[in-house]
Design goal:
Blueprint lengths: L1 H23 L2 H14 L7 H20 L4 H24 L5 E2 L7 E2 L2 H23 L6 H19 L1 H7 L10
Antiparallel strand pairs: 1-2
Keywords: Membrane, Transmembrane, Transmembrane helix
Organism: Virgisporangium aliadipatigenens
Main location: membrane
Length: 179
């Protein structure tokens, strides 16, 4: 079970590192993220910039907490709370009929769908299960096993970060009309 926790920690850290970098790697990326927060229409206009900064700051703090053994449980708690808040904001926005662009990881983003809500809720569950693993299992880990577990977590994180592309691979293909 300890190796599962190592994999989950690598997963959550990687997701949050990519998220912070995607938002903060340049002025244009930051402006696009702020615009996406505004488009969700779940916070007052005057609070959009502070909320955007709070999101990026909390993601960075989550990475730091997960990097220090004594604060890992707090890191998972922060991650779960953030991801739950993101899922709620997305669900509320969708319920209102809006289709804001998700700039969770920077880049081009895509229109928010139920897939994004499910992704975040899935990550909440994973983070909470990791808390249980961390609190109730104190098995020692071997370096090679920990490295393999961490690599597994990073690979799963890559799928999470590129989930829009993964979903598009399995989407039905429309055929051109025959003449």
């Amino acid at each position: 079970m300890a190796y599962v926790e190592v994999a989950v920690r690598a997963l959550v850290v990687t997701v949050f590192v990519v998220a912070v970098w995607g938002k903060a790697h340049g002025g244009e990326a930051w402006r696009e993220f702020v615009a996406s927060v505004r488009a969700f229409d779940v916070v007052p206009a005057r609070a959009v910039r502070p909320v955007a900064a709070l999101v990026a700051g909390c993601e960075a703090v989550g990475v730091a907490l997960l990097a220090v053994p004594a604060t890992v449980v707090a890191g998972y708690g922060l991650a779960a709370a953030l991801l739950a808040a993101f899922a709620v904001a997305m669900a509320v926005s969708l319920r209102r009929g809006a289709q804001p662009v998700c700039r969770c990881f920077g880049g081009r983003g895509s229109a928010v769908t139920a897939v994004h809500v499910a992704r975040n809720l899935g990550l909440v569950v994973v983070a909470l299960l990791a808390v249980a693993a961390r609190m109730f299992v104190d098995d020692p880990v071997e370096p090679a096993g920990a490295a393999l577990a961490a690599l597994s977590g990073v690979l799963v994180a890559a799928l999470v970060v590129r989930l829009d592309d993964v979903v598009a691979l399995f989407a039905p293909v429309s055929s051109p009309r025959s003449r």
